[in-house]
Structures are given as C-alpha cells and as structure tokens.
Amino acid sequence: MPGHGAGILLWNVILTTRAQPRNDTEMNPAWLSSFEESLQKEFGDRPRAFTLANVDSAGTPQARSVICRHMDATGALWFCCDARSEKALDLLRAPAVACVFWLASLRLQYRINGKATGYLSDLNMPQRVEMWKALSDRSRAMFFWPAPGSTRDDDGRKLPESSNDPHPPDTFEVARIDPNMVDLLDLKPHPHRRTRWIIQDRLWIEQPLNP
Ligand SMILES: Cc1cc2nc3c(=O)[nH]c(=O)nc-3n(C[C@H](O)[C@H](O)[C@H](O)COP(=O)(O)O)c2cc1C
Q1: Domain locations in the chain?
Q2: For the CA atoms of 63, 65, 66, 68, what is the dihedral angle to 10 degrees?
Q3: pLDDT (tens digit, 9 = 90+) per residue, 12-36?
C-alpha cells in the first residue's frame, strides 16, 4: 500500500489540530440504553464484534469485523485499528460508515450509520492510552507487525507474539463513530418490529417503519 508514511503524518497533523471530542449532540439518545442493555445481554464480557462497512478510494464497498471497545453518552462507538490499514486510510478520505450488530440470541439487528474520526495523537486523548492498556499482550503485539494487507514475504523474521509496552506506538489508532442513523429490526414479534432514529438539528427523532 503506497503512501502509508504520508497518510500517518497527515492524520497526525489533522488530528492534533482539527479533531475535538464532539459535544454538540444530544446526550443519552432514546435508543442508547436499550442498545447497551442488549449488547450486555448478548455478549456479556465477550468482545462486542460488529461489521464495519465503508467505501474505498475506488468506490468499492468494504466490510470487515471490528470490536466495539467503548460507547459514550452520545452513543458514539469506539474501536481501534492499525493506522496503516486500508480502512484507516480510506476513512480519512471518506469517513462515512455503516455498522451492523447482529445480536443472534436476542434476534435483534442494529444498523448504525455515522462518521468516523481517527485519533493518533496522545494529546488530549486519554482514551487512546486507556484503550491501549486494556488490550491483551497478544493484541498489542499486532501493532508491531508489518503493515496489515502488505504482501507477506517469508524472510524468516519472527513477529512478536506479545507486548507489554505501556506506550501506544504510532501504528495504534483509536477511532470514534458518531452515529447519525440507528435502525433497529426486532425479529421476535411477528410481524417484525422496525424502528429508525435519525438525528435532526442535534436531536434524535424516532420513526416506526414497516419491517
Ligand atoms: C472477530 C474479529 C474482530 C476483529 N476486530 C478488529 C478490530 O477491532 N480492529 C481492527 O482493525 N481489525 C479487527 N479485525 C480484523 C479486521 O476484520 C480486518 O481483517 C483488518 O482490520 C484489515 O481490514 P482492512 O484491510 O479493511 O483495514 C477483527 C477480525 C475479526 C474476525
């Protein structure tokens, strides 16, 4: 993947100057507490994996699993990724994302659209350090591997299997998704129940929809 170094530098410049925690959105939106409860019921202490989709530089949809590490009072979802990954670079250019949580035991689908913002700088970003500390040693090691998606050359190098480094490396990025649409489909009742919330003038508006 060309341009990683430049991409990372650009992120650093942008993130230290532009990206500030968002404070213009309604706190505790109506959908949030039941979403949190459902995640807790479905996953308990297990990782809260969801599908994150975006559009790459060629206009092709891309989707992959990531883990939701944290949710805040505005309903923003936080995940971490490698700053050198395709998704990190693509989100810099086109930050619109679609997320899907399928909570199989509850028969609930949550679709959440929003905008992603990545953070690489330690400045004003205690969440980044906290998230780094919360990773397992094995997960931390991945940020010292070669760039994700680069061609694997068997040069016999042994990649680190674990890391207890207390400082996040430059490759460690945390990203926040600020939702602007939540669509809940509940398959338990028949007919199914579908509700959509959209954000208008900073307030969440609820709309019942046909499933
Ligand atoms: C269950 C599961 C959880 C994952 N969690 C993450 C994650 O939290 N962050 C991440 O960057 N990649 C995660 N991955 C790997 C991604 O799905 C993906 O393979 C990788 O990030 C490269 O994606 P990209 O080329 O679109 O950037 C996870 C994969 C699985 C199967």
Answers
A1: 4-20+33-146+162-209
A2: 110
A3: 333 433 344 445 567 889 999 999 9
Beta bridge partners of 195: 184, 208
The answer on pLDDT for 168 being more than 70 is yes
Pairwise CA distance, residues 125 & 144, whole Å: 21
CA–CA gap between residue 70 and residue 50 (Å, rounded): 13
Residue ranges lining ligand 1, Cβ < 6 Å: 49, 62, 64-67, 79-82, 85-87, 148-149
Homologous superfamily (CATH) of 4-20+33-146+162-209 is: Electron Transport, Fmn-binding Protein; Chain A (2.30.110.10)
Residue 122's pLDDT band, with cuts at 50, 70 and 90, is: low
Q: Kindly give the distance from the C-alpha atom of residue 62 to the centroid of ligand 1, in angstroms, as a whole number.
A: 12
